[in-house]
Amino acid sequence: MPSSEKIAIAAHLHVLLRRKTGRVTDTEWMATNAEYAAEIVRFSREKAAEEGHLDLGVWADRLEEIMTSPEARHRVPLVRMMADAVRERGAASPTAAAPVPDQQGARSVNTEEDVYPESGFIESTFGTLFGESEKHRERKPRDPDAPRYVKGLR
Fold it and tell me: Which residues have CB under 8 Å from 96's CB, separation 6+?
Protein backbone atom coordinates (compact mmCIF):
# COMPACT_ATOMS: atom_id res chain seq x y z
CA MET A 1 0.00 0.00 0.00
CA PRO A 2 1.20 3.51 -0.69
CA SER A 3 2.18 5.47 2.36
CA SER A 4 -0.40 8.15 1.49
CA GLU A 5 -3.20 5.63 2.05
CA LYS A 6 -1.66 4.59 5.37
CA ILE A 7 -1.44 8.21 6.48
CA ALA A 8 -5.03 8.86 5.35
CA ILE A 9 -6.37 5.93 7.39
CA ALA A 10 -4.21 6.88 10.37
CA ALA A 11 -5.44 10.48 10.15
CA HIS A 12 -9.08 9.39 10.02
CA LEU A 13 -8.59 7.13 13.03
CA HIS A 14 -6.73 9.95 14.81
CA VAL A 15 -9.71 12.31 14.33
CA LEU A 16 -12.18 9.69 15.54
CA LEU A 17 -10.09 8.89 18.63
CA ARG A 18 -9.66 12.59 19.43
CA ARG A 19 -13.38 13.34 19.12
CA LYS A 20 -14.74 10.25 20.82
CA THR A 21 -12.16 9.38 23.47
CA GLY A 22 -9.95 12.44 23.81
CA ARG A 23 -6.90 10.41 22.81
CA VAL A 24 -4.27 12.27 20.77
CA THR A 25 -2.14 10.18 18.43
CA ASP A 26 0.73 10.71 16.00
CA THR A 27 -0.56 9.94 12.51
CA GLU A 28 2.81 9.76 10.74
CA TRP A 29 4.26 7.46 13.39
CA MET A 30 1.10 5.35 13.26
CA ALA A 31 1.51 4.95 9.49
CA THR A 32 5.17 3.93 9.71
CA ASN A 33 5.60 2.02 12.97
CA ALA A 34 3.78 -1.33 13.09
CA GLU A 35 4.06 -1.67 16.89
CA TYR A 36 2.51 1.75 17.52
CA ALA A 37 -0.22 1.03 14.96
CA ALA A 38 -0.99 -2.31 16.65
CA GLU A 39 -1.33 -0.57 20.01
CA ILE A 40 -3.66 2.07 18.54
CA VAL A 41 -5.72 -0.70 16.92
CA ARG A 42 -5.96 -2.46 20.30
CA PHE A 43 -6.95 0.78 22.06
CA SER A 44 -9.53 1.62 19.37
CA ARG A 45 -11.16 -1.80 19.57
CA GLU A 46 -11.22 -1.61 23.35
CA LYS A 47 -12.95 1.80 23.29
CA ALA A 48 -15.32 0.64 20.53
CA ALA A 49 -16.42 -2.29 22.70
CA GLU A 50 -16.65 -0.26 25.95
CA GLU A 51 -18.41 2.84 24.65
CA GLY A 52 -20.21 1.45 21.58
CA HIS A 53 -18.35 3.43 18.92
CA LEU A 54 -18.74 1.09 15.95
CA ASP A 55 -16.83 3.35 13.56
CA LEU A 56 -13.71 3.09 15.74
CA GLY A 57 -13.74 -0.68 15.24
CA VAL A 58 -14.18 -0.34 11.48
CA TRP A 59 -11.27 2.10 11.12
CA ALA A 60 -9.12 0.02 13.47
CA ASP A 61 -9.72 -2.97 11.17
CA ARG A 62 -8.73 -0.88 8.14
CA LEU A 63 -5.52 0.26 9.84
CA GLU A 64 -4.63 -3.29 10.87
CA GLU A 65 -5.31 -4.55 7.35
CA ILE A 66 -3.17 -1.90 5.68
CA MET A 67 -0.33 -2.32 8.17
CA THR A 68 -0.17 -6.10 7.64
CA SER A 69 -0.33 -5.90 3.83
CA PRO A 70 3.02 -6.34 2.09
CA GLU A 71 4.89 -3.21 1.16
CA ALA A 72 5.26 -2.18 -2.43
CA ARG A 73 8.71 -2.41 -3.95
CA HIS A 74 11.04 0.02 -2.22
CA ARG A 75 11.77 2.95 -4.51
CA VAL A 76 15.35 4.13 -4.71
CA PRO A 77 15.72 7.92 -4.91
CA LEU A 78 16.98 9.19 -8.25
CA VAL A 79 20.00 10.86 -6.65
CA ARG A 80 21.16 7.60 -5.09
CA MET A 81 20.54 5.72 -8.33
CA MET A 82 22.62 8.25 -10.29
CA ALA A 83 25.41 8.24 -7.68
CA ASP A 84 25.60 4.45 -7.90
CA ALA A 85 25.72 4.61 -11.70
CA VAL A 86 28.55 7.16 -11.59
CA ARG A 87 30.50 5.02 -9.10
CA GLU A 88 30.07 1.94 -11.29
CA ARG A 89 31.13 3.85 -14.37
CA GLY A 90 34.15 5.26 -12.55
CA ALA A 91 35.16 1.81 -11.31
CA ALA A 92 34.84 0.37 -14.83
CA SER A 93 37.26 2.90 -16.36
CA PRO A 94 40.44 3.20 -14.29
CA THR A 95 41.81 5.88 -16.63
CA ALA A 96 39.35 8.49 -15.43
CA ALA A 97 40.72 12.04 -15.40
CA ALA A 98 41.63 13.56 -12.07
CA PRO A 99 39.17 16.24 -10.96
CA VAL A 100 40.25 19.82 -11.60
CA PRO A 101 40.07 22.02 -8.51
CA ASP A 102 37.54 24.83 -8.69
CA GLN A 103 39.38 28.11 -9.18
CA GLN A 104 36.40 30.33 -8.33
CA GLY A 105 35.08 28.47 -5.32
CA ALA A 106 34.19 30.11 -2.04
CA ARG A 107 37.22 31.31 -0.13
CA SER A 108 37.84 30.41 3.44
CA VAL A 109 37.92 33.00 6.18
CA ASN A 110 41.36 33.13 7.74
CA THR A 111 41.35 36.54 9.34
CA GLU A 112 39.06 38.53 11.55
CA GLU A 113 38.86 41.45 9.11
CA ASP A 114 36.85 39.27 6.71
CA VAL A 115 34.01 39.17 9.24
CA TYR A 116 31.94 42.22 10.08
CA PRO A 117 32.06 42.50 13.87
CA GLU A 118 28.56 43.98 14.28
CA SER A 119 26.75 41.13 12.60
CA GLY A 120 29.27 38.29 12.61
CA PHE A 121 28.56 37.54 8.95
CA ILE A 122 31.33 36.83 6.48
CA GLU A 123 31.95 39.35 3.72
CA SER A 124 30.32 38.36 0.44
CA THR A 125 32.50 36.20 -1.81
CA PHE A 126 30.44 36.88 -4.92
CA GLY A 127 32.26 38.90 -7.53
CA THR A 128 31.05 41.89 -9.43
CA LEU A 129 29.31 41.68 -12.76
CA PHE A 130 32.61 41.08 -14.57
CA GLY A 131 33.93 38.39 -12.23
CA GLU A 132 36.34 40.53 -10.24
CA SER A 133 35.92 40.47 -6.53
CA GLU A 134 35.36 43.73 -4.66
CA LYS A 135 37.94 45.04 -2.28
CA HIS A 136 37.07 44.89 1.37
CA ARG A 137 34.88 47.88 2.19
CA GLU A 138 35.34 49.70 5.44
CA ARG A 139 32.09 50.00 7.31
CA LYS A 140 31.33 53.16 9.18
CA PRO A 141 30.57 52.66 12.84
CA ARG A 142 26.90 53.12 13.61
CA ASP A 143 25.90 56.29 15.42
CA PRO A 144 24.38 55.15 18.75
CA ASP A 145 22.11 58.21 18.87
CA ALA A 146 20.67 57.67 15.39
CA PRO A 147 17.16 56.14 15.26
CA ARG A 148 17.20 52.47 14.31
CA TYR A 149 13.80 52.39 12.64
CA VAL A 150 12.07 54.55 10.05
CA LYS A 151 10.27 57.33 11.92
CA GLY A 152 10.74 55.41 15.16
CA LEU A 153 8.34 52.61 14.12
CA ARG A 154 9.15 48.98 14.59
Answer: 90
| CA 132, chain centre distance (Å) | 37
pTM of the shown model: 0.46
Question: How long is the chain?
Answer: 154
Instruction: Mention every residue, 6+ apart, whose C-beta is less than 8 A from residue 46.
Output: none
For the chain, percent of residues with pLDDT exceeding 90 = 29
> What is the phi/psi pair of residue 122, to 5°?
-75, 145
The DSSP code sequence of 65-78 is HHHHSPPPPPPPPH
Instruction: For the beta carbon of residue 16, count every other beta carbon within 10 angstroms.
Output: 20
Smallest CA-to-CA distance from 63 within 43, 86, 87 is with 43
What residues form DSSP beta bridges with 115?
122
What is the amino acid identity at position 7? I
